[in-house]
Amino acid sequence: MKLSQYAKENNLTYNAVWRQWKKGILDAKQLPSGTIVVNENPISSNVCVLYSRVSSSQNKNNLESQADRLYQYAIAKGYQVYKNIKEIGSGVNDARPKLIDILKDNNYSILVVEHKDRLTRFGFNYIETLFKSIGKSIEVINLSEDNKSDLLEDLTSIITSFCARIYGLRRCKRKTEKIIQELKENETD
Q1: Quick check: 86 and 50 in contact, CB under 8 A?
Q2: What's the pLDDT at 42?
Q3: ∠ at Cα 104 (40, 125), nearest 5°?
Q4: Domain span at 117
Q5: What confidence tens digit (pLDDT) does each residue in 19-76 have?
Q6: 62: exposed, middle or buried (C-beta count within 10 Å: 0-12, 13-18, 19+)?
Q7: In sequence order, which residues have a C-beta less than 8 Å from that of residue 14 and are 6 or more positions away?
Q8: In 50-123, which residue ranges form alpha helices assigned H by DSSP?
Q9: What local confidence, expressed as pLDDT, does residue 176 receive?
Q10: Considering 106, 122, 140, which residue would you say is the last residue of a domain?
Q11: 27-32: long-range pairs with CB below 8 Å, 24+
């Protein structure tokens, strides 16, 4: 199929797909006429995204070493590294922009993480099931669970998040009551 048709079918821009072709990620060839034709299975089975995450910016050095270990692992396995993503945020936070971008991206077949909890603290099996249903896989390098300090930091993050939501709801209620009172006062004038 033509490169433009492939872009439409995968909800990508033509320029993004063209850049992938130039990088050698897509299984495609250029005809003598200049038209680029993508083969039916354009994503190689060994194209991977590396995802590193730490809970706080205090662990930034650990983030870099984690990313380096993932890269060395991918090279040793013979994977083609498509992206090497590094993110700082709680594993319980479901609004991590870099992770969301990875989940939306269709240009890789393997997501590589060092530990399950680097991807998410809760719901790993849901994400893994979703990946299997779309023909992708998650590869966890180290399946042991031993990082208690990170778990405590995430517990603190959960408590802080819920407290902020509770206080936000209270503030919202007071604000609504103030608006209603102002409207009533304006009606009497």
Answers
A1: no
A2: 47
A3: 100
A4: 47-140
A5: 888 887 777 888 999 899 887 654 567 899 999 999 888 888 899 999 999 999 999 9
A6: middle
A7: 3, 4, 7
A8: 60-77, 97-104, 116-119
A9: 80
A10: 140
A11: 28/3
